[in-house]
Amino acid sequence: MAADAAEEIRGTAHGTAPVPLSVLDLVTVGAGRTASDALRTGVDIARLAEARGFHRYWVAEHHSMPGVASSSPAVILAHLAAHTERIRLGSGGVMLPNHAPLVIAEQFGTLEAMAPGRVDLGLGRAPGTDGATAAALRRSDRLNEGADDFPQQLAELTRFLDDDFPDGHPYHRIHAVPGPVQATSPGGVQSPHRPPIWLLGSSGFSARLAGMLGLPFAFAHHFSAQNTVPALDLYRETFRPSGVLDAPYALIGVSALATDDEKEARRQVLAAALNMVRLRTGRPGLVPTPEEAEAYDFSPMEREFVDSWNANVIHGTPDEVRTGLDELHKRTGADELMLTANAHSGDVRLRSYELIADAYGLPTPA
To answer: What pTM did the predictor assign?
Structure first.
C-alpha cells in the first residue's frame, strides 16, 4: 500500500508548470444564479481539469454560507465521479470534528468503490462555519473539545479505514463498509485499498501533526498567507517517514484568477473581495456581480481589508498569473499548487483554468 499511496499523492507536472497543478472548487453561487448552476459549473471545471492535466480536484466543506454550495463534499464527489474518468477527486477538506469517524469512513469507502484508486480524503479540524452552526452540526456547544480531540478522532478514522482495531477494543467488531473487511469475508474480492489521508491546516497544529505522522499536508495559503512559510517549515522539520510517505509532500491552496485582460481581472476579484467583506462582518450572501462591487461604497476599514485580501490573490492576464504562481512556488517550495478561482460567474471561473492551462502549455485534449 505504501508505494501505491505515495504514487497517488505525488502528482506529475505538465508543460512548463514547476509542480503539479490542481483545483480547489468552493462551488460558489453568484447573485442571480442557483446552486444547480454552481454544481454544473463544478462538473465543467472537473472535466476541463481532467482533460488539461490537472492532478486533482477537491471540494471543501462549508456550512450556512449562501454563496458556497459545498456543504456535502461526499455527495458532490459522487456526482463528479460519474462525470470523470481519471482525475483524482477529494475533500479539501471534510471537517472531522463535525462527523463521526465511522460515517466518514463509510462515505469515503463508498466513493473509493465508485472511483477506485482516485479518491483523496483531506481532513480539517475547523468547523467550516460559525460557532452557532457548528453547534447545530455537532449537537453540542463544546466546540473546543472537538478540535482538541482531533488527533484521537483521526486515529479512530484511520483504524476504521484500515479495519484494524486491536482485539479487545470496543470497536473491534465494527467495520466500515465498503472497506477492507469485505476482502476477508468468505468469497470476498473487495480491494483492501483505501483513500490516502491528507491533513489540512491554516496554522501550525495540523502541519506538526502531519509531519509527525508522515502524512501529506495541504496549507490554506488562499486565506492564511502570512502563515504559509512558517507552517511549511514546521511540517518539513517535524516530518517522520511513514508507510505512506518517505519524504514530505505539501500542497498549498492559492487564489488565482486569469482573464483575457487585466482590467477584467480586477473587476472580478473586487466582487469576490466584497463577498469576503460581508462574510467576515456576519453578512454572508451570494457572490455579488462586478457591477455591484464597483458601485459599493466601501468604508475605509473595508477598503483596507479588500486591499489586503486581494494582495494575496494572483490575478491578471494569463502571463501575469503564471509569473505570480512561479514566484509563489519559489518562495514556498510547495510540491503542488491547488488553484481556486473565486468569481461571480461560472464561465469566468472555467475560463480562468483554461487560460492558466494554456499559459503553462498543459496538454490539450485530442
So the answer is: 0.94
